[in-house]
Amino acid sequence: MSVPHFDGAPSRLRSLVEDLRRVGAIRSAAWAEAFARVPRHVFVPEWYGQEADSRGITVWRQRDAADRDAWEATVYSDQTLVTALDPDTAERVGERAWTGIPTSSSTMPSLMAQMLEDLGVADGHRVLEVGTGTGYNAALLSARLGDRLVHSVDVSPGLVEAARRRLAAAGYRPHLAAGDGQQGFPGHPAPFDRTIATCSVPRIPAAWIEQTRPGGAILADVSMGIEGGLVRLTVNEEGRAVGHFTTTTGRFMAARSDAHAYRHPGRAPYAPRAGFRSASLTAADIRAHYPFRLLLAFHLPGAELVYHVDDDTGAMSLQLQGRDGTWARAPIADEDTTIATYGGSADLWRRAEAVWQWWNDHDRPAQDRFGYAREADGRHYAWHIPDGHRWPLDA
């Protein structure tokens, strides 16, 4: 799709940069200048807006410059904009409307700014970006460092080519490649000073460590089932990457090896309902505290946190579920309730209650009080920085 032109771009771009500085997402003059030089509308000529149909099912409606005012306002707002859907799940349900799972997006500018600030680049640094997407982040890196120092890879050849055209239209020509970004940049160029990923991974891939120079840094979203988060790690001579979760919070779509769709992992059937019990941990407690969910993921690797809807009543609950089919849930409509229902075993919710007790006993540490390491042999673990208590994450 060609890039629409509109005269109001400079003023809207200035307003966006001012907003990002005001909320503290942009903290340095160098990144303020980079954001001010890159027009976001070039990279998001169209997107999918989320709606709900009469049955409550999520519908993605295609939006573009046909509605000029809405397009301008949305593109220069601090929003994540979905730009592609999984073709295996996408189904057309109306005019310019589909159901399906998002596979690519333009991340909200405030999160991008915070991550780029956290990355800690300096003049002359070579950067690898995993997840080219629309090309907007590669343009920002190019504006800050010069495009010859920026390498970006995406699993989708179509996205890469579209990003290449948009980058050229904005005046940038970084090194782009199509491929599985979990394997790093094809051809393994000279080591990078910084690696940044705009997709989530279950652990830091070995290729990222191998392609980042000793002393260099990796910034990525590690997904651990129940929760995940952004980690900033330093690579050492032994092939380890060690660091901590950042104060910046944000989650990304999962990395994929297939250019078009996600792998859909199989799960054990739900265990039959076994009973219910009073509980000291509620759905409200879990939903309200991100650092606690992160800690819960450390303790229950391989488990998931999902929303469950009762087939008979339509009541919604927050549910923990294990790989073996065990589950435990608490209702959302009455989030202060202390009743948990379980299937297979009551142990899952009991373990979560023990984590809740630990978190409170340790003064509710924030996420940056937890470290993360990926060893050269592939093992990865988290730890509580103040006392060194460690949790292996290999489920």
Automatic annotation (TrEMBL):
It is found in: Cytoplasm. Keywords: Cytoplasm, Methyltransferase, S-adenosyl-L-methionine, Transferase. Coiled coil: none annotated. GO terms for molecular function: protein-L-isoaspartate (D-aspartate) O-methyltransferase activity. One of its GO terms (cellular component) is cytoplasm. Its EC number is 2.1.1.77. InterPro entries: PCMT (IPR000682), SAM-dependent_MTases_sf (IPR029063). CDD domains: AdoMet_MTases (cd02440). It comes from the Bacteria. GO terms for biological process: methylation. It holds the Pfam family PCMT. Belongs to the methyltransferase superfamily. L-isoaspartyl/D-aspartyl protein methyltransferase family. This is Protein-L-isoaspartate O-methyltransferase. It comes from Streptomyces iranensis.
